[in-house]
Amino acid sequence: MNLSVDDKDTSLADLDRLAQIAQDVVARARRSGASAADAAASIDTGLAVGVRLGEVETVERTRDRAVSVTVYFGQRKGSATTADLDPASIGQTVEHACAIARHTEPDPANGLADPALLASTIPDLDLWHPWDLTPAQAIALGVEIEAAGRAQDARISNSDGASVQSGGSLTAYANSDGFIGCERATHHSVSVALIAEDDAGMQRDYWYDSVRRAADFASPSSIGIKAAQRTLARLGAQRLSTRQCPVLFAPEAARSLIGHFLSAASGGALYRRASFLVDQLGQRLFPPWLQLVERPHIPRGLGSTAFDAEGVATRDSDLVRDGVLARYILGSYSARKLGLQSTGNAGGVQNIVLEPGADDLPALLRRMGSGLLVTELMGQGVSLITGDYSRGASGFWVEQGELAYPVEEITIAGNLRDMYANLVAVGSDVDPRSHILTGSLLLERMTIAGE
User: Which domains, from first to last, does the chain contain?
Assistant: First the structure.
């Protein structure tokens, strides 16, 4: 695996150019009559390679550019975007945004972020690690990962392929209150999906890694081997009879439970009253031992950023403290709609950390005794309005704290409010491959619909 840094890195010069473009767009909007404006200019580059059964399937290079502008004529708002950085095209984009604003209805919640909340310093979060990866090297890496998995067992009969992706993004944001902020970040990932077969049928599973810096990858062979182990473990999967029992979500599945909470606590759902968390600020939703914190400045974190999409400074902040909902997730617009203040979340959340417990996955299995370990979820059966939860699942039935046999084609159901309140434990086995950092989650009881 070639982990060298790109010696032809022009990112700082490109960032300077993007910053100048963003500032020029804001100035042009003000000359066109806008009372306020902001603009973002970006360049995204990437290499993506796919291989299957040792042969190349896809090789794709991307270089996408964009300039977006939002203008305000009082409380009227207009936005437009272009992928052409030519000054004439940018000028037309500004004109289109202004024309839209002049024909929209005023909205008292419209406007730039509060200048007092804008980032005054931009810390180095160690997000920029370009990978000097050629297509030939990416192909060789994908072949190596897939081959390591296929070599583990004769029952690995096929493959859905391996992928290798490397990319970087440069973004500059400026507004008419004088803010200018620039960030650059890289993101690299590798994955493989394998198919195993025995007399009972075929099963598929996968594994992957996702990092800011290629040197932080697990070894290529370990990714293939892990995918093979997961795939082989699924052979002979059974269905369960309908029952109620404890359920343990493995970390890669547990992330989605936290994700549903984040969606329900987001301003857009709240001011539309389309969330079961409306009017729940300050209420206990989780057990009193649970802490959920946003930490946007983790070095090389997959969700790290110094400022949000409006330039508002990000900072460490409790979402849930001692089980109580401490705040909502707000940008400037949703905050004004709710009569609150932006929490620096325009554009979404940053690194969300569920403080881990002391038990690893084997200890949690022993603590559960008998129940269901969920390793994969399917479907979208979640209502943020009511909290009703129903999703397809697969995983393993557990007896006396040990994996007994794999299960598939089941549905797990409950209500998110009850599920959160009845959490029993959070594992120490935190999965770092996401901006939502959580270990396994043990729930007291859910309904399983099977045979």
Answer: 11-232 (3.30.2290.10), 237-451 (no CATH)
